Task: inverse folding
């Protein structure tokens, strides 16, 4: 069948979608998968910065679509992982420069060469979102445990189902277990009950994430990072493994109990 195309999206901006895309791409590459990441956020590209590849851009996604370069010329090889590539977004164009049909054609050209095509969608529900989900075989929806972010994620789920791309799988990002215990933050159970989709991972709030993204060395490369471990586990689940959800807190095992609830047993993040 060739590569699986996975779109990472969200309704609300700032929930960690690009961070998730970068870390999942590297996690899959570390599993010896051939991976290409596509930044579909035309005009507001950031994936290249998070990946530490911003100084190596020559051509971009729009250059490929408009025929100014060959597909391979726009693919930037990661310095550490030879089977990991990035196709950056154009920074000086807008999202109308690419159509959903263009994205389908582009991904179809790469399916025979890669195991995974991971597409970083712009936030929101407009043209950029439609471009990003058009070629998707699977959609991962990133949200935070906040009412506004969850409401926007619910809107995305509805749009995915209307376009036969749903319901998608949920990544709950930036969870603070101590706030959940106090009732000051939605729990994974709360969010999953509201959205009614499968949970593929819970990523804890981690102070190492922002410095890692700023330095172009995604947090997954930090073996001591709890967020990095969560992203590694999500990548394994995406690859079909049955991975137990890690215990979020040593004291209570709260999220482990939640994981068992949603997976019907001891395996499930």
Result:
């Amino acid at each position: 069948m060739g590569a699986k195309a996975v779109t990472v999206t969200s309704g609300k901006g700032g929930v960690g979608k690009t961070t998730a895309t970068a870390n999942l791409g590297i996690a899959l590459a570390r599993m010896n998968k051939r991976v290409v990441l596509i930044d579909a956020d035309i005009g507001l590209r950031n994936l290249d910065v998070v990946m530490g590849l911003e100084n190596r851009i020559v051509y971009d996604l729009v250059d490929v679509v408009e025929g100014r370069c060959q597909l391979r010329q726009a693919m930037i090889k990661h310095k550490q992982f030879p089977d990991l590539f990035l196709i950056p977004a154009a920074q000086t164009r807008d999202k109308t420069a690419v159509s959903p049909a263009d994205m389908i054609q582009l991904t179809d050209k790469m399916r025979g060469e890669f195991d995974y095509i991971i597409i970083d969608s712009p936030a929101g529900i407009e043209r950029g979102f439609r471009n990003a989900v058009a070629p998707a075989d699977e959609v991962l929806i990133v949200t935070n445990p906040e009412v506004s972010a969850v409401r926007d994620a619910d809107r995305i789920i509805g749009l995915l189902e209307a376009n036969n791309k749903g319901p998608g799988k949920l990544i709950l990002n930036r969870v603070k277990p101590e706030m959940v215990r106090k009732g000051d933050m939605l729990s994974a159970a709360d969010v999953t009950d509201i959205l009614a989709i499968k949970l593929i991972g819970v990523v804890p709030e981690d102070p190492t994430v922002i410095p890692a993204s700023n330095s172009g060395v995604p947090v997954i490369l930090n073996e001591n990072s709890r967020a990095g471990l969560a992203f590694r586990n999500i990548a394994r689940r995406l690859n079909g493994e049955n991975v137990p959800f890690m215990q979020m807190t040593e004291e209570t095992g709260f999220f482990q109990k939640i994981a068992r609830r949603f997976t019907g047993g001891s395996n499930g993040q």
Remarks:
- Residues 147-162 form the longest helix (16 residues).
- The CA atoms of residues 99 and 188 lie 35 Å apart.
